[in-house]
Amino acid sequence: MSKTSPPTPPDRIGVARPRRRECFLRQLGWDIQLWLFGMTTLIVARVGFIIALWGELDDGVTVTDLLAVAERGIRFDLAVAGLLALPGLVFLSIPIALGNLSATGRSVRRWWAWTFWTLTGLVTVVAVGYYLEYHDLFNHSLFGLVYDDVVAILRTIAREYALAEAVAVILLVAAGGILLTRFWFIRPWFDLSRLPGRYGPPWLRMTVHGSVLVVLALALIFIFRGSWDRVPLQERHAEVTRHALLNKAVLGNLRALHEAVKLESELSGEEGLRRFHAGDPAELTARLFPDQPARSRLDDYLRRQAAGRSLPVRHIFVIVAEGYSAWPLREPYRRLPLTPGLQRLQAQGGVLLDRILPASDGTMNSLATLVTGLPDAGLTTNYRPSAQRPFATSLPSQFRRLGWITRFYYGGSGTWQRLADFVRDQGVTDVHTAIRIRRLWQNQVWGLPDHELFDYILRTFEPEQPSLNIILTVSNHPPYTIDLAGAGIDAGALERDLRRVYPDSSAGMAAFAHFRYADEALAAFVAEAARRFPGALFVVTGDHCARNLHLLHRPPLLDMHTVPLFFYGEPAVMAGLALNPETFGTQLDLIPTLIERAAPSGFEYYALGRDLGGERPAVVFNRDCVLGPDFVARIDALPRAEDVQGHPLILDRSAADRMRRQHGLVTGFSWLRIMSVDGEWPAKMIAR
What we know:
There is one protein chain. This protein has helices at 16-52, 63-93, 102-134, 141-146, 150-160, 163-184, 202-225, 244-251, 253-267, 271-274, 281-288, 340-347, 363-372, 395-401, 419-425, 434-437, 450-460, 491-501, 509-532, 557-560, 571-575, 590-598, 653-675; strands at 303-305, 315-321, 351-357, 405-410, 430-432, 467-472, 536-542, 563-569, 584-586, 604-606, 620-621, 625-627, 631-634, 640-643, 648-650. The chain has 688 residues and is of the alpha/beta class. The strands form three sheets. An eight-stranded mixed β-sheet has the order 5-4-6-2-7-8-3-9, sandwiched between helices. Strands 11-12-13-14-15 form a five-stranded antiparallel β-sheet, with helices on one face. The termini are far apart.
């Protein structure tokens, strides 16, 4: 009898299936472990975000508020953590035919978790800085940075926003993540292959395993919906408290970044209009212009005729001052030594409107509105194909039709956000940028000191023909590198004066010193240019509010969201302006206001704003806010508002709904016009 063992009988059909199923369940356990790691990471990021910005919160935060933020925030985190675990499920758990991948699966998931941990830390650090600058999580302003001067931004961040500390935090987070993920994945927590019944009959194993898979499938549905309700969890469900910062923390930084990218993409496509108006485009124009018949061209809705209030004006200078807020010109702040220059001009007959909404919260978007006459609709107008020709509402183009020379002066680079090309496309005949003023100007982060720009204008200005001159300054901008002593600004004395009145202010004094410098520089220019060029009208406004320039810990909305509109000229010019200092409006109103005072009677022009010397409106809008005679509110916060002293208000809900609809109509019309060519209806949105 042979001593050799008998041959092993071939495997029966079905023997490999339990092993393969067990392998799949083992991998699924690692996926659950990875998902829990993602949830933990997102919760830690939210808590860190709130703690880092705790000083920005309003008084009266309760435990109930924090619990509401935790509950809703966790529901938002479910899907983000689910996306983290999804690649493991798809590429490691499901392909069970590859064999037992438990060791490989653990290693891959560990490094994938470390990447997520580090990325979340990076985004959270950026989100804290972004909120301190914009008082919002990632929004449309983020995409202005995409087109901005990257080198200048990095230099600004390095000098102004504690870049070294931020980098150190991110490196510590990354290093800590290596240890954390090693601990987290050192052993399986959920080995689903060892469930009860694994040694029982096949029907029991299949019942247990099938039940587990059904439960996990239902959990997966809830994870990606965030709710069992008919409507899944959406961005609009993030408002759970009266505290704006806490509501923004609910969404989470990664989700907010995703929503910002999604919004930018949607605004640039056909879905963009539905963000403002869900109906037919023809219905939009019918509601916005109820007294006009249907038009074949969008521009025709904006056609007007000048009344002929012609002033003895030969030159108009529109000075768009970087970061020039309105609040330092209002009581009680105007008593501080921040705006002596404009106050001197006001005492000499200038007219100040201090309740003006800027067109946007960024330089280029505001300038685009001031130049084109179209509200900011989140479309980066200066990069749109339609902007390569003058819009009918364009300020320089319409003054060219009046026979005026149009000039643009800027202390920085003309290639920044294709600025020089953009203003030329809109009708500017002569562009002066830093390279024409001083060839070696790159030692300044954003451009030349304001006084150098103004000196150049005074030296080279040719007053023979009527002219419109748009001037964009740069000095009142981080990282604040102006030689203040050389410019005659005593920063130390200014700080002492401000600290004496506001000892608890946490604002950086360099910002106030540069604001004072910018005010003195432009006031000196206006005074000298008015002396040299008879018949000149000067208009001073801000490109946006100075986001980091506040003496109060929580300033009123009116202080945070308004810029000045200041008019100055010789007595004969000022007498014909007919502007009431109590008037409120937006920068969009500047175009009809100027044309009505420079054009002869019957001159045909196009405008979406209103003449500031005309009938007083009920409310006015910019991209983010609504302003009335006695209140201001963010569109996304209605019906909550504040009065002009900063006290909270709750507006009538029906009135708030009307404001939202009107804001959508105005912004939607602008979206249509920017996306169209020569004012024709966009090809895929022909009015029916």
